[in-house]
From TrEMBL:
<dbReference type="InterPro" id="IPR014756">
    <property type="entry name" value="Ig_E-set"/>
</dbReference>
<comment type="similarity">
    <text>Belongs to the arrestin family.</text>
</comment>
<dbReference type="GO" id="GO:0015031">
    <property type="term" value="P:protein transport"/>
</dbReference>
<dbReference type="Pfam" id="PF00339">
    <property type="entry name" value="Arrestin_N"/>
</dbReference>
<feature type="domain" description="Arrestin-like N-terminal">
    <location>
        <begin position="16"/>
        <end position="121"/>
    </location>
</feature>
<dbReference type="InterPro" id="IPR011021">
    <property type="entry name" value="Arrestin-like_N"/>
</dbReference>
<dbReference type="InterPro" id="IPR014752">
    <property type="entry name" value="Arrestin-like_C"/>
</dbReference>
<dbReference type="GO" id="GO:0005737">
    <property type="term" value="C:cytoplasm"/>
</dbReference>
<protein>
    <recommendedName>
        <fullName>Arrestin-like N-terminal domain-containing protein</fullName>
    </recommendedName>
</protein>
<dbReference type="InterPro" id="IPR050357">
    <property type="entry name" value="Arrestin_domain-protein"/>
</dbReference>
């Protein structure tokens, strides 16, 4: 059996809270109970924000009546959905090996790999 444990070092006030410009640090721990072949091991750090909001807007209707040269407001409303997504960080770091690299056998036991990632300003 293979177990993977990912631990982050505490950030602000000893909590797992990080802000722009901070150095995110952690450890990946592999526990193997038998030999296992690997090409590599990587950590992907991804952080984003998503916002969604709605707004009720008045409907407009095309008016071709006596004075209808355009659109006219109605008393009907509809809900308009808005959304915004922003990616703050998306990095991949190899702790050992590489994608498509040669395989090698890792001995049973506990293996620890430290990593860090500088968060963008």
């Amino acid at each position: 059996m293979t177990k993977v444990n990912l631990q982050f070092e505490p950030g602000v006030d000893g909590k797992l809270i990080y802000y722009s410009g901070h150095l995110l640090k952690g450890v990946v721990e592999l526990k193997l109970d038998h030999p296992k072949k690997f090409r590599g091991l990587h950590v992907t750090i991804f952080g984003s924000a998503r916002a969604h909001w709605t707004k009720r807007e008045r409907k407009y209707r095309r008016d071709f009546g006596l004075f209808g040269n355009g659109y006219r407001r109605t008393n009907d409303y509809h809900t308009v959905h808005y959304e915004g997504i922003e990616v703050y960080v998306n990095t991949r770091s190899y702790l050992f090996g590489k994608s498509g690299g040669p395989t090698f056998e890792m001995a049973p036991g506990t293996h620890r790999y430290e990593f860090n990632c500088q968060l963008p300003p």
